[in-house]
Design goal:
A three-stranded mixed sheet has the order 3-4-5. A two-stranded antiparallel ribbon has the order 1-2. With about 140 residues, it is an alpha+beta fold. The chain has one domain: Roll (CBS-domain). It is built from four helices and five strands, in the order αββαβαββα. This is CBS domain-containing protein. Keywords: CBS domain, Repeat. InterPro entries: CBS_dom, CBS_dom_sf, CBS_domain-containing.
């Protein structure tokens, strides 16, 4: 199974000038915890709900602080045609729970989470078990 088979294509991109309050509202309203940050052409970084708490709130930053002040500037990503195991290996190596998904042109086309992979593996395992039982 490939990343594109289970990734979410329902994502938002914030600008580096988006405030913490705006980002938190977007996360709340969209029920997600990962927000890619870009300038419309290129990804500049990403911010998570954890980043907002640990890097901003715990450091005393206010709600009008820009994402550019707290975002991770390194984008960890995989490609949409990668195998799920490759994406899981990247998450394990980088100790993260979410990955940006890029196409061959290095454009953001989705986001994949550890939960997405877990659900997909459960479905695959269930399918393998059904196949084995059918052969008995």
């Amino acid at each position: 199974m490939h990343v594109k088979d289970i990734m979410s294509t329902d994502f938002h991109i914030a600008s580096p000038q988006t405030t913490l309050r705006q980002a938190a509202e977007m996360m709340r309203d969209g029920d997600f915890g990962y927000l890619p940050v870009g300038d419309g052409v290129k990804l500049k970084g990403a911010v998570t709900d954890r980043d907002i708490v640990i890097r901003a709130v715990a450091a005393g930053m206010g709600p009008d602080t820009h994402l550019s002040d707290v975002m991770s500037e390194t984008i960890v990503y995989c490609f949409e045609d990668d195998d799920l195991r490759e994406a899981a290996d990247v998450m394990k190596r980088e100790q993260i729970r979410r990955l940006a998904v890029l196409n061959d042109s290095k454009r953001l086309v989705g986001v994949i989470t550890l939960g997405d992979i877990a659900r997909a593996d459960e479905q695959r395992l269930a399918g393998e078990i059904e196949l084995q039982v059918a052969q008995i």
